[in-house]
Amino acid sequence: MSSVLGMAGLSLVFTLIIVIAYSSAISQLFQQRQISQIKTDFINNMTHEFKTPIATINLALDSLKHPKISSDPEKVANYLRMIREENKRMHSQVENVLRISKLEKNDLDIQKENLDLNDVLEDSISHIALILEQRGGSLHRHFGALRTTVLANESHLSNVFVNVLENAIKYTDESEAPVIDIYTENVRDKIVIKVRDQGIGMSKTAQRKVFQKFFREHTGNIHNVKGHGLGLAYAQRIVDDHHGDIYVESEKGQGSTFIINLPLIT
């Protein structure tokens, strides 16, 4: 009897070893698939991050060919400024990857100064103005905040708003003209910024994941998978560094509203 029990015990041990080894192999395969998916998502998202500045530059160059514009020094200077600014933005997007890594390591030294948030918003709007115009869209300002001074890094905070505004354009159906409303208001010792669009909206699942790195929501067309990706992950880290918070309210088919709260200088 003891020998039978011993053999049964050994069989159980060997079975457990086989199960553990099999589970480990499955886990490694799953991790490899995840890494492969992350690489694919990274390429897709970086492509999306470059689309807006490249499109703006192309539109500006096409406009410069028009006789009425090429003969107007003021308009030429304006389009050249746009091209220069978008080149800077592309360089900034390349650095976003390094910034995310440094932020996670708390290794990014963000210098801050007193800024008027209205000026930062206007700068961000100028970056997407040409793309919005090309789509036949409109942007409406509802700047109700009376106190607008914040301690912030101008470049990083401007990038946050540009990312949100770009999403408002990208996530409006291509058959429709984007409509964007920007609201500001003071709530106690904070300034609240709301960027509302009338786009395709997002699911509850997407709202929970939208600030994760490399997240992208399928829009129904597998050849046109749009991604929030690095942009919103970076935005959240920057807003966190400014002791604020960012979140989204949305419904499918009803558009999205991104809400950013930042502390005021008192």
Uncertain residue ranges? 220-228
- Outline, from the CA principal axes? globular
CATH overall fold name of the largest domain: Heat Shock Protein 90
Mean pLDDT: 81
Strand element count: 7
Distance between the termini: 83 Å
CATH homologous superfamily assignment of the largest domain: Histidine kinase-like ATPase, C-terminal domain
Number of helices: 7
The assigned CATH architecture of the largest domain is 2-Layer Sandwich
What summary fits the major beta sheet? Answer: 5 strands, mixed
Q: What does the radius of gyration come to?
A: 24 Å
Residues in β-strands, percent = 15-25%
The side-by-side strand order for the widest beta sheet comes to 2-4-5-7-6
Count of discrete domains:
2
Order of helices and strands: HHHEHEEHEEHHEE
Category by helix and strand content: alpha+beta
Helix content: 55-70%
Protein name: histidine kinase
EC number: 2.7.13.3
Pfam families: HATPase_c, HisKA
Catalytic activity: ATP + protein L-histidine = ADP + protein N-phospho-L-histidine
Describe the structure.
A hairpin with a 2-residue loop joins strand 4 and strand 5 (190-197). Strands 2-4-5-7-6 form a 5-stranded mixed β-sheet, covered by helices on one side. Strands 1-3 form a two-stranded antiparallel sheet. It has 2 domains: 2-104, Helix Hairpins; 113-263, 2-Layer Sandwich (Heat Shock Protein 90). It has helices at residues 2-64, 67-70, 73-104, 117-134, 154-170, 204-209, 229-241, and strands spanning 113-116, 138-143, 149-152, 179-187, 190-197, 245-250, 256-263. It is built from 7 helices and 7 strands; from the N terminus they run H-H-H-E-H-E-E-H-E-E-H-H-E-E. Helix 1 crosses helix 4, helix 3 (73-104) crosses helix 7 (229-241) and helix 5 packs antiparallel against helix 7 (229-241). With 266 residues, it is of the alpha+beta class. Its EC number is 2.7.13.3. It catalyses: ATP + protein L-histidine = ADP + protein N-phospho-L-histidine. This is histidine kinase. GO terms for molecular function: phosphoprotein phosphatase activity; phosphorelay sensor kinase activity. Keywords: Kinase, Phosphoprotein, Transferase, Two-component regulatory system.
